[in-house]
Amino acid sequence: MKNFLLVCNFKMNVVETKSYVDAMKNEEYANVILCPNFCDLKEFVKLKKSNKILLGAQNVSEFESGAHTGEISVAMLKNIGAQFCIVGHSERKQFNFETLSQTNQKVKLLIESNISPIICVGEELYSVEEKQAEFAVRFVLSELNEILKDVDVSKVIVAYEPVWAIGTGKVASNEHIETVLSAIKKYTGVEFTLYGGSFGENNFEDIAKIDCVDGALIGGASLKPELICKMQKRIKEIL
Ligand code: PGA
User: Can you tell me whether residue 55 is helix, strand or coil?
Assistant: First the structure.
């Protein structure tokens, strides 16, 4: 039986802690990682204690400390109790111009502080549809080549998120997901890989059953605590 991780990325949305408290009741959700906005991280520590959830951040500075207005350091995340941190999300690349070498710096700092980086990679749509998976493999391996420079790969999680599937309702086929995730495992040595991109009610069972998928990075559906709890329970039953 695999321990399928559900990583919930609330993005820049406010999700009331109470809605998760109510949905989770007294049960344990030790394979659910909640990643609220920075301001709400402290609030979610309650659920970490009562429901054994894991706690993650959505980003971190590539600098250790000092004159970096508006940034949050790895030490600050550590202090608050974050065990995971998403890095290199496609939205940060698109809107904040985050580079692969910045992501690499973040990954190294996180590992030094024993916070597990969840590294996002993924391609845009390719013009020749039937070659999309080949293109994706080449693209994500070249991203990882830079992001994993001088990094202990046993300490990271890689989330494959095709950019065209994020928030669009379009999901990569099972075959596509399998091709890309197995190539990531084979060529980088990373052991733990997630799929992300419109993961939700209609596709979670099929995706969870794919051998090389160890979990999901979830955006939109993570704003619905009841749905996260329902998916977590069902996945436990079927795997
Ligand atoms: P989505 O977002 O589930 O809404 O597609 C995924 C993500 O951005 O991580």
Answer: strand
Ligand 1 center to 59 CA (angstroms) = 15
* Residue 150 DSSP one-character state: T
What phi and psi, each to the nearest 5 degrees, are found at residue 178?
-65, -45
Positions annotated as catalytic residues are: 89, 161
Residue whose pair of structure tokens reads 């998976």 in the numeric block: 133
Rounded CA separation 5/216 (Å): 6
For the chain, how many helices (H) and strands (E)? 9, 8
pLDDT tens-digit profile of 120-159? Answer: 999 998 888 888 999 999 999 999 999 999 999 999 999 9
Residue from 166, 171, 228 to probe ligand 1 pocket by mutation (most atoms less than 8 Å from CB): 166
Instruction: Write phi, then psi, for 112 (nearest 5 degrees).
Output: -55, -30
Q: CB of 194 closer than 6 A to ligand 1?
A: no
As averages over each run of 10 residues, the pLDDT of the chain (239 residues) reads 93 96 96 97 95 98 98 98 98 97 98 98 90 95 98 98 95 95 98 97 96 97 98 95
User: Which ligand 1 atom minimizes the distance to the CA of 86?
Assistant: 9
